[in-house]
Amino acid sequence: VVVCVTGASGYIASWIVKFLLQRGYTVRATLRDPSDPKKIDHLLKLEGAKERLQVFKADLVEEGSFDSVVQGCHGVFHTASPVLLHVVKDPQSELIDPAVKGTLNVLEACKKSPSVKRVVLTSSICAVAFSDRPKTPQVVVDETWFSDPKFSQTMKSWQWYTVSKTLAEEAAWKFAEKNGIHMVVINPVLVAGPLLQPQVNASVEPILNLINGKKFPNNSFGWVNVKDVAEAHIKAYEIASATGRYCLSERVVHYSELARVLSSLYPTLQITAECEDDEPYVPTYQISQERAKSLEIEFTPLEVSLKETVESFREKNIVNF
Ligand code: NDP
């Protein structure tokens, strides 16, 4: 069976490619720059890559870029989207266009290819949890929630990334429904766990910051293991009854808890117990695991995910202790 993974060099996508190859699929991987060894070498080394990995050049913002790649594919995993969590100069061109137009570009290619039976879209909890609905430790966020881009713009961090993911998922649902595309959406929280790619990606950066002794932000986020996220994508494709959205979160914690867990795992590190501000801690909340469990996902505990992330930093000489 031939499937396509867009943005294949990315943190999550690399694990999806690895698991697909392990399961015997032929994988068409799209990258912006397949000649960049930092983006491609780790994929070429995967088990089964020699026999069943095909590499294609494609860019989200180039119309028609994905047309030939998805021809003949049975499934398409659309993961490519810019993950820029910090301040950006031009949100429209840096985040919103590639997220929204890119997603529609990929779906348009799928519409033109009758071989494509299912699309799995990597959305985010950012498209779910950020609206004026209050979040407290008792509140359970689930897949019926949808973020409000107006609210997201007022958030103290990740505003434009959140807007881009929300608008992209919204546009994707409209397009899929209108054109009869069977789409399943995955909505992960912050992803941690081992890196296959050589460089540090945005979601593990907060862990590196803590190791480097920085004060932690006053915020609460969910965390999930990258292998569970990759597995969920494949299950969402393989399980015939999979439909709609699937939130993926092992646990929501305040950064102070993340720092505490890291300190207890690595007592010799100078991890600070200091917050960036003196405000009351932003409360945690819950995220429903019910639908994720119907995909047969058993969540890896946060402690294990953090340990795997740090060990991966060590192996790649990103940290030296
Ligand atoms: P990475 O930054 O590792 O990967 C992002 C991928 O998107 C890269 O392969 C990148 O390609 C590609 N991309 C970005 N812009 C373009 C473009 N204009 N054209 C083609 N490709 C492009 O991030 P993650 O693996 O973390 O993220 C993957 C997906 O998962 C994203 O959709 C993200 O929003 C989503 N997600 C991530 C979470 C996390 O915590 N990590 C949580 C929830 C959702 P290139 O290598 O060429 O730069």
Automatic annotation (TrEMBL):
Chain ranges passing through the membrane? none
All residue ranges annotated as the NAD-dependent epimerase/dehydratase domain in the record? 3-238
Q: State the superkingdom.
A: Eukaryota
A Pfam family this protein belongs to? Answer: Epimerase
Any keyword Nucleotidyltransferase? Answer: no
- Identify the keywords attached in UniProt to this record, alphabetized: NADP, Oxidoreductase
Alphabetical list of PANTHER family matching this protein: CINNAMYL ALCOHOL DEHYDROGENASE (PTHR10366:SF802), NAD DEPENDENT EPIMERASE/DEHYDRATASE (PTHR10366)
Q: What is this protein called?
A: NAD-dependent epimerase/dehydratase domain-containing protein
